[in-house]
Design goal:
The complex is a heterodimer of chains A (418) and B (256). Chain A contains 16 helices and 10 strands. Chain A is α/β, with parallel strands linked by helices and 418 residues long. Chain A folds into 3 domains: 3-144, 2-Layer Sandwich (Beta Polymerase, domain 2), CATH 3.30.460; 155-282, 3-Layer(aba) Sandwich (Rossmann fold), CATH 3.40.50.720; 319-417, no CATH class. In chain A, the strands form 2 sheets. In chain A, strands 7-6-5-8-9-10 form a 6-stranded parallel sheet. Chain A has a 4-stranded antiparallel sheet with strand order 2-3-1-4, sandwiched between helices. The longest helix of chain A is centred in the last third of the chain and has 64 residues, at 289-352. Chain B has 256 residues and is an all-alpha fold. Chain B folds into 2 domains: 1-114; 121-256. Helices cover 74% and strands 0% of the residues of chain B. Chain B contains 8 helices and no strands. In chain B, helix 6 runs antiparallel to helix 7. The radius of gyration of chain B is 19 Å and the shape is flat.
Chain lengths: 418, 256
């Protein structure tokens, strides 16, 4: 069995080309069905890759398909398309599933995309094994390394900080100041972790109402913010106000009603919305854009160092896959050898059958069966081990030659034909 | 020979203490090694304590060193409840170095030997066991309070590594410390009750006064929490109470 991978990705292909060859779930499934015996099409915003298992012309078929998809961009495609085979292809898929080939190392979305592609693909035993192992690798990397633990963007860093203060965010109340895209992105990150958006405050109430409706919150005027501070756990601010909209004294006054509960304030606006002296108040933690960007830069560098550990893990899994794939080449030889041994045993037993009592026959059967199993055990193991090495196939040829395995099956076929 | 079980326990606790420091560089192997150090060390110490209990005719941990031995076992045992989860792993940084140090002290003081019994009677054993368990709980609470103050400082100073080396969440530390104090006070009350049945008026000493002071201080902490003294203030009060437990109580008890 030969594995072939042909694809384009964000590393070399510009977005214009990636757009052309990108496929939605249905189209990817249909294409996989058209490509032949075993094929999977993985198409995300960063890559389109075709995984094929076939003996001949697999690469030509795959490149032809991508060229067809690229249409007017076909000329550009030839310079950026990559072709990988067998272990290199498996290693690539494992790196993709682990998030190591992504723009942000360790991002989690890709694992789900690999799973969807696998489920929609036309898979047989080979690609089944390959993709199941890829999913396993993706999970292993995320569990055994800290690559996916740290946030990679400012809004997700804000949400992660909230978890550092409050733990689980279920039931935590969030107050949003400003109704722009930045506020919405941060709010959605918090909601995805279980927080509740209590209110959206905006200078223009109509804009605030629109975002509040999307987030299932109440829209309020900016002058009602101080009243909300008593019950909110997290404040996200991103307005275009020229000066501070929340002063230290306003927050200090609200703290009395909070009875010692902490308050996290995230100021995503430039110029800043929140008086920096708020951070001096007991129980208040104020982060501005610079603070969050510094945290994100640090976590990204952490992801990169974790990526080195993940690479080692992925390489070990790829080696395991290579061993499995190589063993496939010797499996028919092993099966033939065992069949030959059984055939000889049966024939000799049959020949001796008339001279043995029923009890003796059972004993001889048992003894010969054990002899055959023990004789073939070590050669079987050795052949599988040798298969993983470069000269593995040679071993299989030698065994076939020594035992005349090909000749015997040819003879049998001839007999059957007659 | 069984007395030498203190050596593997000490080595394992020491290894855990160092490995927890390594965990500060980032989560990974160091944390797992630390957790295994705690587990194996605790098992070795458990075997040591069982050996001591079997070989003694009375209560084998009546001396200050013996009490310290039992105390360390209780603290580490209580920590194991949280310590095995990655989320609270860094609590080990506040628990394991002092645990290793105190066990070494107990060893040097002869508290890990066999065949020693300084006191007898089930009531006394119950009293000492409960008091030590209560103080072990307060030690854990103090560990959480210390970790709270550290985490609060990191958040206040906007440390860049705040999300890379993850401490337990601030509010969880605050709540868990308070719960540990409540549980410890209940155990201490039971221990005091058990001891009171044997005490005569003339037995009343400085250690008992300090013990009541400790109970009163922690009770005040719980009341004040209802009045809004949470977070930083609660953690500071917790540590002040622990200073009484760690310094004043041993001095008054064992010096007497």
């Amino acid at each position: 069995m030969k594995l072939t991978l042909v694809g384009v990705s964000h590393h070399d292909a510009p977005i214009e080309l990636r757009e052309r060859v990108a496929l939605d779930g249905g189209a990817a499934a249909a294409l996989a069905g058209r490509l032949g015996t075993e094929s999977v099409v993985l198409s995300t915003c960063n890559r389109t890759e075709l995984y094929l298992v076939r003996e001949e012309h697999a690469e030509d078929v795959a490149v032809g398909t991508l060229t067809e998809l690229a249409g007017e961009g076909a000329a550009e495609l030839s310079g950026v398309v990559y072709r990988l085979r067998d272990e290199a292809a498996a290693l690539h898929l494992f790196r993709v599933a682990a998030g190591l080939d992504s723009l942000v190392p360790g991002e989690g979305e890709i694992l789900g995309q690999v799973r969807s592609a696998y489920e929609a693909g036309a898979t047989g035993s080979f690609l089944d094994r390959l993709f199941r192992q890829a999913l396993h690798v993706g999970r292993r990397v995320r569990v055994e390394t800290a690559i996916a633990e740290s946030p990679a963007s400012v809004p997700s860093a804000a949400a992660a900080l909230a978890q550092q203060v409050f733990g689980e965010l279920g039931g935590r109340r969030v107050l949003i100041l400003g109704a722009g895209k930045t506020s919405e992105s941060a709010a959605r990150n918090l909601v995805s972790r279980g927080a509740t958006i209590a209110a959206v405050a905006n200078r223009t109430l109509a804009h605030g109402e629109e975002l509040a409706r999307k987030l299932g919150a109440e829209a309020i005027e900016l002058d009602r913010v101080s009243a909300e501070l008593g019950t909110a756990d997290v404040v996200i601010s991103s307005t275009s106000a020229p000066g501070y909209i929340l002063a230290r004294d306003t927050v200090a006054a609200a703290l009395r009603a909070r009875r010692g509960r902490p308050l996290l304030l995230v100021d995503l606006a430039v110029p800043r919305d929140l008086d920096p002296r708020i951070n001096d108040l007991e129980g208040c933690f104020l982060y501005d854009v610079d603070d969050l960007e510094a945290v994100v830069a640090e976590t990204l560098s952490g992801r990169r160092s974790e990526a080195a550990r993940a690479e080692r893990l992925v390489a070990a899994e790829a080696a395991r896959f290579r061993e499995w794939q190589a063993a496939l080449d010797v499996v028919p030889t092993i099966a033939s050898l065992r069949a030959l041994a059984e055939e000889i045993r049966d024939r000799e037993l049959e020949r001796a059958g008339s001279r043995l009592s029923e009890r003796e026959r059972r004993q001889v059967e048992s003894v010969t069966s054990q002899i055959v199993a023990k004789l073939l055990h070590l050669p079987t193991i050795r052949m599988k081990e040798a298969a993983a090495a470069a000269d593995g196939v040679v071993y299989a040829h030698v065994v076939r030659h020594l035992f005349g395995l090909g000749e015997r099956s040819a003879e049998r076929a001839e007999e059957e034909r007659k | 020979m069984a007395e030498l079980l203190v050596v593997p326990a000490l080595i394992a606790y020491g290894e855990a203490a160092f490995a927890y420091a390594g965990e500060l560089r980032g989560p990974g192997l160091a944390g797992r090694l630390a957790t295994w150090g705690v587990r194996l060390g605790w098992l070795a110490q458990t075997a040591l304590l069982v050996g001591q209990a079997v070989s003694a005719e009375g209560f084998p941990w009546g001396t200050w060193a013996g009490s310290l031995n039992l105390f360390v076992w209780l603290v580490v045992g209580a920590y194991l409840i949280w310590g095995c989860t990655p989320r609270y792993r860094l609590l080990g940084l506040a628990v394991m170095p002092p645990a290793a140090l105190l066990l070494a002290l107990a060893w040097l003081g002869g508290g890990t030997g066999f065949g020693e019994d300084t006191a007898s009677g089930a009531v006394l054993a119950l009293h000492v066991g409960l008091m030590l368990a209560g103080f072990a709980g307060l030690t854990l609470a103090a560990g959480m309070a210390a970790l709270y103050l550290w985490q609060e400082r990191r958040l206040k100073r906007h440390e860049r590594r705040v999300l890379r080396v993850r401490f337990p969440p601030l509010e969880s530390l605050d709540h868990l410390a308070a719960r540990a104090v409540v549980a410890s006070l209940v155990v201490l009350a039971l221990g005091i009750g058990a001891g009171a049945s044997r005490v005569e008026r003339e037995d009343f000493d400085a250690a008992m006064v300090v013990t009541f002071g400790i109970v009163a201080l922690y009770a005040a902490l719980l009341v004040l929490r209802h009045e809004g003294w949470r977070g930083r203030r609660s953690a500071l009060l917790n540590l002040a109470g622990f200073a009484l437990v760690a310094v004043v109580l041993p001095l008054t008890h064992f010096a007497g």
